[in-house]
Amino acid sequence: MKRSMKKIAAAAVLLTCCLGWHGGAVRAEEPAFLPVSEVREGMRGYAKTVVHGREISTFDVEVLGVMKDKGATGGDLVLVKVSGPVIDETNGIAQGMSGSPVYIDGKLLGAVAYGFPQSSGRVGMVTPISDMLNLWTMEDRTEPSLLPTPSEGLIPIDTPLMASGYTQDGMDYLAGRMKDFHMTPYSAAAAGNDEAVFPLEAGSSVAASLVTGDLKLGAVGTVTYVDGDRMVAFGHPFMSHGSSGYFMHNSYIFTVIPSRNIPFKLGSVGAEIGMVDQDRGAGISGFSGRVPPYTALHASVTDTDLQNERDLNVRMIRDEALLPTLSATSVYNAISRVMDRRGEGSVEIAYTLYPENSSQKPFSRKNLYWSASDAAERSVDELFNVVRILEQNRFEAYPLRSIDVDMKVTKERRTAQLLDATATPMAVSPGDSIFIRVRLAPYRGEVFYKDLTFKVPEDQPLGEMILEVRGGGVVPLPYLIEQQKYNLTDEIVERLRSYKDFNDLHDKLMKEDQNNQVVVEILDPNISMISKDGKEESSVKIQNRQTPEKPDYLKEQKEEPDRAKEKESPVSRVDTDYVIYGDGQFTFQVMSPADRDKVLQKVKADREKQNQMQLQMKNQEKEEMQNPDKDASANEKGAAGLD
Q1: How confident is the model at residue 31 (pLDDT cuts 50, 70, 90)?
Q2: Beta bridge partners of 185
Q3: Which of 161, 344, 371, 457 is most buried, taking the most CB atoms under 10 A from its CB?
Q4: In the CATH scheme, what is the code of domain 294-410?
Q5: How many angstroms separate the CA atoms of 407 and 335, rounded?
Q6: 2-137 and 294-410: same fold?
Q7: DSSP H/E element including 605
Q8: C-alpha torsion angle, residues 42, 282, 17, 54 (rounded to 10)
């Protein structure tokens, strides 16, 4: 049934094209269509685009020939030469002209979409309108189509990415993140009447936007054709996402910026007017008056030094690949605007991710970060990674309805170094509790203590057990060691982690250590340590590390390999007001209760004996202090005897 409907829709489009081609009945305001089969070398016409404001200008077009099977859809492309005052003014075909409709003898041929390098921007390629209208018949709602790319030597006329509302630091951070998607954002202002809605027409500017609200981020191009509430534009893909859900906006063009590579239109992302639903080889298509699914983000940032507070509200397209970047760059911009500076700082961050599906659990975390170079960037890295892991997990879809972020920033350095720790008892049995006291020194502050209790697992093998006491800002490196050994990427290393299902992944991420925690866990003695800032950490002095030698009759219990892999290591944590650095280890002997009691009784007896000796010494000192003449008399007698 779907295939039949698709054929009927395609036939309807073809019939419409044929009516136009052969002079059939079309509405007076609509042009007829010129099929590629009727294109001949030397034909002349014109194209429409905007080079300033919203006024549509024209430039001359001459057909040079037809390139067979060279289009992104596998179809033909028409080779054209452009000229005229507009082209002279823009110094050739500019980025943002993609989609400019080309008319030959009053008939719509298609959209200027590709260019030739080394042609000074005077030679381009036109995507036929028939290929673009096929976007309206697409039924795929989930995956992009696998289409051939244009032949070598042809380059798409890029759609410049306009960004408004971003600070300069925010723009720098955004540009770095968008490199992963091969896009360069340009800072653009807002036009005075950007909030006004203007109807789209062939040749007008349009923006396919990724972010809207207090920040706007969108690609600017040209509308090729409009039919009622539907439109097609660009003539080549924006991001090749297939069925998409971009915001559709008006755009106001300020000017055309000259460039060594290719000039580009500098424009605004204006009023929201609809949604872009297709992004494929032949261009983009959209509907006016519709709103795409989106993820709302609210960020509240306070600079506690300046008592400066600012809220940010944006809507982002619901795209698993882009959402981590869009979220992180939006929050980064919010904190950089509040700080109004670069450099060191401590940042408290608390955030909650709310899923669209009410049957799925929200995700909430908080953390504390310190950076000596860029506190804003340091603080949003976690949000980027968490959103990326959850959105791109292999178990189930986790579309986000909204993200709520609360941040507090100060220039104060809120870090503390783990100095040492004590633990008791040092001989234990499975199920016993170990009491640990940690001594910490804040940066330029007074030393303080934190107490923790760690329970030895009930199934802990007998023998030696190493407990790692560390700051939450220091992490074990088993995955990094393997990554360096086998030259694995971060993505592959992430996949090496074992999760049973989505709930397991969700819960483990929420329980990840916080930088401001003191953490106690069992450690493999072969695992090295490193700080989350990438600095090597030296182990601190741990007291009470001496333990009795393991008796020969104590045999270690071995687990089956599969069970060992699934076993989750126990951990104990306590929060502080500082990012904690440093680590150290205790070595314990895990033994049977009977052997443990013997060891502890011996330790107790030795301690009592030591206490008695100390008491005797104190009593002797006290007696000497009370009878000083007795000692003097004895000394005199001794001296006399020697004479």
Answers
A1: confident
A2: 161
A3: 161
A4: 3.30.1490
A5: 8
A6: no
A7: helix 593-626
A8: -80
pLDDT of residue 15: 33
Q: Assess whether pLDDT exceeds 60 at residue 550.
A: no
* Cα–Cα dist 473/513, whole Å: 8
| Contact in structure between 73 and 131 (CB atoms under 8 Å) | yes
- For residue 72, CA distances in Å to 36, 61, 64, 402 come to 16, 22, 20, 36
Smallest Cα–Cα separation from 135: which of 37, 253, 260, 233? 233
Nearest partner of 150 among 130, 126, 129, judged by Cα: 126
pLDDT at 181: 83
pLDDT score of 328 more than 80:
yes
Going from N- to C-terminal start, the domains of the chain cover: 2-137, 155-288, 294-410, 416-591, 596-642
Sign of the torsion formed by the C-alpha atoms of 209, 210, 211 and 212: positive
Residue owning tokens 């409907």: 5
Run of H or E including 486: helix 478-486
Please state whether beta strands 415-424 and 579-581 pair in parallel, antiparallel, or not at all (unpaired).
Answer: parallel
Following DSSP, what letter does each residue of 156-170 receive, concatenated?
A: E----EEEES--HHH
For the cut 90, the answer to whether the pLDDT of residue 153 exceeds it is no
DSSP string covering 268-331:
----EEEEEEEEETTEEEEEET----EEEEEEEEEETTTTEEEEEEEEEE--TTTHHHHHHHHH
- How many whole angstroms separate alpha carbon 277 and alpha carbon 162? 20
Give the 3-state secondary structure of residue 420. Answer: strand
Q: What band does 261 get if pLDDT is binned at 50, 70 and 90?
A: confident
Position 123 pLDDT exceeds 90: yes
pLDDT number for residue 444: 95
pTM of the model: 0.80
Q: Give the chain's mean pLDDT.
A: 82
Beta partners for 451? Answer: 437
Task: Specify the residue for token string 């968008």.
Answer: 178
CA distance 580 to 350: 18
Distance CA(583)–CA(580), nearest Å, equals: 9
> What φ, ψ does residue 538 adopt, rounded to 5°?
-85, 145
Radius of gyration of the chain (CA): 36
Nearest to 589 by CA among 580, 597, 577: 597
CA atoms within 13 A of residue 130's CA, in its CB half-sphere: 23
Answer whether 164's CB lies under 8 Å from 269's CB. yes
Please identify which residue in the block is written with the tokens 């940010």.
312
Residue-level pLDDT at 552: 41
The pLDDT of residue 343: 85
Closest to 52 measured CA to CA, from 86, 101, 17: 86
pLDDT band at 474 (very low <50, low <70, confident <90, very high): confident
pLDDT score recorded for residue 117: 65
CA 199 from centre of chain: 36
Tell which CATH classification among 3.40.30.10, 3.20.20.70, 2.60.120.260, 2.40.10.10 matches the domain 2-137: 2.40.10.10
Three-class SS state of 533:
coil
Q: What is the rounded average pLDDT of the residues 357-361?
A: 95
CA angle 183, 188, 192 (to 5 degrees): 145
- The packing angle between helices 168-178 and 375-391, to 10°, is 40
Band (340; pLDDT cuts 50, 70, 90): confident
